[in-house]
Q: What sequence folds into this?
């Protein structure tokens, strides 16, 4: 298994654990886990965001079908977890996120009134570390049960730590897997600069390869993203939303941002297709940003 580290800090198995918090109020450490069934008929994601200086955790779990949002657990006032399993508890739910074998397997459990998950993310290819912020992405096969029913699919998990101000910067993040086994990933923040953005591909049975020169272009239907064209090495890939699972975020000062994350169908110009997740973050004044 290969760990591709584009950053200037060492990335090793210790980074799968929690990190020492910085002193900034919005210092955050988060774990994401997303998944889509092989046939694209069911998908979802889990995010645990820890805000030690804000003395709370954010927990999100969403399940969608092509008909729309099927179930969700959203808690923006959960107590910070106290155990290595990152267990959080709130009204009507208990959830845990455990890195069973660093960079190889991770497990998510959720028991709630709305949704039950018992899933494992098993690494395919390796991990990719960002250059512009402490963060890494891991493409995975995903297996287990959802509401007691067997599940098989694919997705990506990631882990990041540092200051995250949801109310100032817009961005696009996209991750998908084509039916031939190719993974694609790209992220761009709308900061008015053309940087070397985090992007990679994983060929079938291969390892992550940095996608130099990655670009993206998003079109909107009103406030809703309609599609994003991802230009990586090789044929361009278009991500089109199938079902949205949005979250509204409120800052300590009362500002609101909208986070329209969506399960997407991915279509390559050469005819290949697949499934995954894309997000287009919309903070206050997002329309004044130049979307790329």
A:
């Amino acid at each position: 298994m290969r760990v591709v580290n584009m950053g200037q800090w060492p990335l090793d198995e210790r980074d799968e654990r929690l990190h020492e918090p910085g002193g900034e109020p919005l210092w955050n450490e988060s774990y994401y886990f997303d998944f889509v069934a092989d046939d694209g008929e069911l998908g979802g994601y889990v995010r645990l965001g820890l805000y030690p200086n804000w003395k709370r955790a954010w927990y999100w779990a969403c399940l969608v079908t092509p008909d729309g949002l099927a179930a969700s657990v959203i808690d923006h006032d959960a107590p910070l977890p106290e155990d290595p399993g990152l267990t959080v508890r709130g009204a009507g739910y208990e959830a845990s996120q455990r890195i069973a074998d660093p960079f190889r397997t991770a497990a998510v459990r959720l028991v709630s009134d709305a949704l039950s998950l018992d899933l494992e993310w098993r690494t395919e290819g390796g991990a990719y570390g960002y250059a512009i912020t402490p963060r890494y992405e891991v493409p995975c096969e995903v297996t287990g049960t959802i509401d007691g029913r067997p599940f098989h699919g694919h997705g990506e998990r990631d882990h990041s730590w540092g200051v995250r101000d949801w109310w100032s910067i817009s961005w696009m993040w996209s991750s998908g897997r084509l039916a031939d086994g190719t993974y694609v990933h790209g992220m761009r923040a709308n900061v008015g600069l053309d940087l070397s953005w985090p992007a990679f591909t994983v060929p079938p049975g291969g390892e992550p390869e940095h996608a130099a020169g990655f670009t993206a272009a998003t079109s909107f239907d009103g406030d809703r993203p309609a599609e994003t064209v991802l230009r990586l090495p090789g044929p361009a890939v278009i991500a089109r939303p199938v079902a949205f699972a949005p979250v509204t975020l409120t800052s300590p000062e009362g500002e609101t941002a909208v986070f329209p994350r969506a399960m997407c169908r991915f279509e390559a110009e050469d005819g290949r297709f697949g499934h995954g997740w894309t997000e287009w973050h919309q903070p206050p004044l997002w329309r004044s940003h130049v979307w790329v």
Notes: The mean pLDDT is 95. The first strand starts at residue 2 and ends at 5. Residues 2-288 form a domain with the AttH-like fold fold (CATH 2.40.370.10). The chain has one domain: 2-288.
